[in-house]
What we know:
The protein has helices at 36-48, 108-118; strands spanning 5-15, 22-32, 55-62, 65-69, 76-87, 94-105, 126-133, 139-140. It is mostly beta strands. The strands form two sheets. The protein has a four-stranded mixed beta sheet, covered by helices on one side.
Amino acid sequence: MTNNWFECKVKYVKIDEVSGKEKKVSEPYLVDAMSFTEAEARIHKELEQMISGEFNVTNISKSNVVELYPNENGDRWYKAKVSFVDVDEASGKEKKANQYMLAEANNVKEAYEFLEDCLSDMIVPFEIPAITESPIMDVFPFFTDEVNEEIPENLKPISEIEPNENEFE
């Protein structure tokens, strides 16, 4: 399943960590969703837990990011332009296809090295012509490892089901 990333701009009042004063901010977040409507619902659900007080989703746009590379050692997201090189067999000319990816790191150099490592098993040759620090504050994938939903009472986990020997006769 491919991800559909939407960039959601959110405006709210934040306490400045240095001065302690309130200031209005507009921050972008990345959400994986099937539609603009779902993206708005998901960003509200995620940020209600993080932002005390009111906030407004001021803009939602489709992102050109195709892949994410989270890194628990990183503290910021970096957007990388990755060019995949393909040779047109008929003409013999090189053709580049660009894709945008996000890598989590502490600086541009780490982001480049981390992304190179993540893409090292690619069969198609590639180059990374550009990496910039992204303004994205946080990313909310659709499926996360932290999902810990309770199982409804009428269902059992597969691991608790005893195999029935007569089931396939």
